[in-house]
Amino acid sequence: MGSVGNKYRVHEVAKDFGVPTKQITEILTKYAETPKNHMQVLEDRELSLIFEYLTQHNQVSGIQVIFAEGAKPAEKKQQPAAKPAEKKPEGKGESRSAKQETKPVSRVPQTKVVDTRKATAVNLDKYDEKLQDMAEGRTGGGRRAQQQTQGKEKFRNGGKRRDNGFSNKRKQEEADRLRRLRLEVIKKTPVTVQIPDEISVGELASRMKKTGAEVVKCLMKNGVMASLSQLIDFDTAAIIAEEMGCKVEKEVVVTIEEKLIDDHKDNEKDLVPRAPVVVVMGHVDHGKTSLLDYIRNAHVASGEAGGITQHIGAYQVQINGKPITFLDTPGHEAFTSMRARGAMVTDIAILVVAAEDGIMPQTVESINHAKAAGIPIIVAINKMDKPEANPERIKQQLTEYGLVCEEWGGDTIVCPISAKTGMGVDNLLEMLTLTAEVGELKANPNRAAQGTVIEARLDKGRGPVATLLVQNGTLKQGDIIIAGTSVGRVRAMVSDKGQKITSAGPSVPVEITGLSEAPTAGATFNAVADEKLARELVEQRKAEEKAKANAPVTKVSLEDLFSQIQAGEMKNLNLIVKADVQGSVEAVKASLEKLSNDEVRVRVIHGGVGAINESDVMLASTSQAIIVGFNVRPDNAARDSAARANVDMRMYRVIYDAINEIEAAMKGMLAPKFREVLLGHAEVRQTYKVSGVGTVAGCYVQDGKLQRKDCQVRLVRDGIVIHEGVLASLQRFKDQAKEVLAGYECGLTIEKFNDIKEGDIVEAFTMEEIPQ
Ligand SMILES: Nc1nc2c(ncn2[C@@H]2O[C@H](COP(=O)(O)OP(=O)(O)OP(=O)(O)O)[C@@H](O)[C@H]2O)c(=O)[nH]1
Fold this sequence. Notes:
- By secondary structure, this protein is α+β, with helices and mostly antiparallel strands.
- Helices cover about 35% and strands about 25% of the residues.
- Keywords: Cytoplasm, GTP-binding, Initiation factor, Nucleotide-binding, Protein biosynthesis.
């Protein structure tokens, strides 16, 4: 017993008795020699004193009353202060059961077990534990349990003696009964389970505090056969959990990204108009750069303080007091590569078409890229100063691509201009502001900045330098930003006019320093509050990137087209058609689009003449499209990037084959028995006419190999397939060769084909059977 007194403090005594600490200290001050504060340890003598006092002041008429009625009367008298707290645990069942028992073990201590520290939130677990302690009569388990025993002792010593009616056996029985009651109560209280989007059966069982077998059985009853390790979705898990008497809560996992990046939707009232972001696209040499330069020079006041025009990748001009932001990288490559990264930066596209040249392949590409991005197109017919300019012809051509000018009843704005003389450029700019107004472009300048990396490089002196386009919020000097896998504090900010600035609002491009590394163009950036968390996120992103680089990307392919349609994942089948002549493009486009049915709409999002290039692959990749080629081949860059981006490219020689195959794929009946396996490429460097043999081509094997047996070849000239057939002979010097590897020269002839020219590419391949 003595050991108990060693650590029993004033406030604990007060709590256990459910009386204010003050009352205890008052008792002590009155009767003990030394007054105590609430943290001081009590000695046995002082404890007895308190017990004595409290017992005397809270007397009941006889011990029988307590036994007959339970602890209530004593409890009530003793501590009116603890009343509200008492109520809670009573409602929880445990105390109810204790009450029902009305055993002396719980007589005085019953008030003790109530945690009165916080009347509003009672720690029930603790309460349970205490009950257990009391019931089991544990003495070594806890200070309070010990104290309770001591309390009992004191009670007896206090004069109300009775026989020690509790034999050890009875105590044991009592404890057992209490434990059973407790288990009963626990069983009846519904367990609340948190279920994420997906959960394994085993994990669900443990969260529900059930055995795996019970859960598997319940699943089976519901027609789901799943093993313990198998994952089931939220809905299934929720049904099972409810059926098993649990309350279900959806577990929401908060990622670092969600914690760090504030991406709440802006309130309409916080939004203010922002400048449109404009991209200039068009065919090579049609005047994109000239136009961008003209606008910049005419509208950026050269005399601005400290201003030296800087090429930072974007610039802003004021037209009649309204700002317009131009992306300074002409062409759709940059635009599409940004879009490929998911960055939606531009609001309007200017399509530059040279008046004397008309619509060219890249013009068409540009139109389709802008259409795929869903942004309005304003056509600038350039080089109007040239005598041979023929704008009417261009307007006519534009209609073929769905761009009908306003004067012909359409809604496409067409502005004749000259980037050389400046004629019509102001009108074009006005049209831009008008289009922007229609678009009601808005942003909220009063929040953390968010936007896109336009350009980035490593500067010898300044370290990583990046041009950022703020799209929402305001970027300030000193902000911590995270841009893709780069993080840092904005050290210096320079505007497009070369001026040092300290903040940049929506649609404003700025060049900044302070990042840890040069981010990739097209990456999004965010200003954040927590640098440590930002660094953590960067590490996570880097790891994800690594994992992604190793994992194959699943893109649309003819093979799994049907399953995607079935799963309802595909509503549009996007195709890009490339062919050797314009006539084929049109014919294929029309026939393929006719394949549309109720479930899937077949859309040719781009069609053009010539080899499949990287831009086609990029467009396919961003628009989830399949590339269909007729008598054309992909160039090397396209082939590489298609492999990287997992873009499905299908080459055909006959239109009929293409239509049949795509139709079959849509119906899930595509059963390709053979697959083409590329062997290698050889360039024709010389040709000889040999009588009786035909044209012998002296070739250099560029990659892979050429082989004699089972080798089919395709002769490609400027990306167009001229012939497809088989090798008739393959030689190294005078000897027949079985195969010729990359880096070696060889001579070859193609069966029944002689029209081989220098510069042609021989593409060798075999057909491999696909195991069913
Ligand atoms: N006469 C005349 N020449 C122009 C006009 N605009 C551009 N040019 C000329 O056309 C040529 C090509 O212009 P760029 O601005 O370089 O064309 P681009 O579309 O940017 O070309 P890339 O950057 O190669 O794609 C240059 O020699 C310009 O001087 C114009 O309005 N009138």
